[in-house]
Amino acid sequence: MTDILNRKIFNYFFVFIGIAAAIFLLYVLSNVVILFVLSVLLGFIFAPFVRLLEGKGLSRTISTLSIFLLFAFLVYLALSSVIPKLIYQMDQLVIALKDFSLNEELNIIEQKLLSIFPFFDKGNLVKKAEDIISTSFNDLISHLTFYLGSIVSIASFFVIVPFISFFLLKDTDAIQKGLIYKVPNKYFEVSYWILKRVTLQLGRFVRAWIFDAAFVGVFIGFGFYLIGLPNALPLGVIAGLGHLVPYFGPIIGGIPAIILSIMITGNLSMVPLIILVIILTYTVDNGFVQPYIFSKSVDIHPIFIILLIIAGSELFGIIGMLLAVPTATIFKTAIKEIYFAYKNYSIAKL
User: Fold this and answer.
1) pLDDT of residue 152
2) DSSP symbols for 32-87
3) Which of 65, 121, 190, 265 could form a disulfide with 341 if both were Cys (CB 3.0 to 4.6 A apart)?
4) How far apart are the first and last CA of the chain?
5) Domain ranges of the chain
């Protein structure tokens, strides 16, 4: 009895050490892990189209190559049509900013506040606001310098990720067979089932995630255009990208639009319309789009998602925020299937 107990304790300790070592290794090799995860996510997006071409009689290699070439062509068309407009709108923004007087606008706002709250100290608001803006601007410049210094690394992402994703997608069956082949016979069936379920759930989630972000970006960009907000195109792109971070999308998409509208118009006249566009977009998205496209995705509690996003941000920055939910989807599905197999099948216990 004592030997059995000692063996169980040793097994649990060994598993704990293994998990801790794996987490430490993932943290040390975070850049490599991020590259691989992004490649896998891109593969999940393209997988249905590759299977569609395979159903038409094309080989896996030709199907994968065709989809990637089509994707590259569409990206080229999008960039060639969008970038000139984006550059033009940014030029207009720079021209507008040249005519913008921060101190003057702050004084106007302060006068309005003093008329409502006469007990405020005159001049105090302007000084504090200037200090905050100056500090924020310096922080922004330092961050931009850091990211521009890493431009080679960023460019390598756009080369390496599609390259890895191509081979992952082309050799999916061989990779899965290779992974399963290494599993002992007594775990073979449950391992195959877990891999299949994780692949299915994550694929559904990623495709729904990307589609939902595209919907929000287009809807908000079009809404900003209709209300006459300058730079609607880049603001729509920002809103769409921001929506990739669950629950933080309205903040990421709304704050830049509000700030730019105040800087360009010099008043708060467009703020209610901007808020209305964002509320309308997320009402349609939460009420109709998300329930439909996420109906088969893994259900995770909102509080847990927010904690995951914060943890991902602390560990890996922006990329960590984006990958927090897909990673949680993988682990939740795997743990759920392992527990089901543990309770219902005769797999070995620790």
Assistant:
1) 44
2) HHHHHHHHHHHHHHHHHHHHHHHHTT--HHHHHHHHHHHHHHHHHHHHHHHHHHHH
3) 190
4) 15
5) 172-350
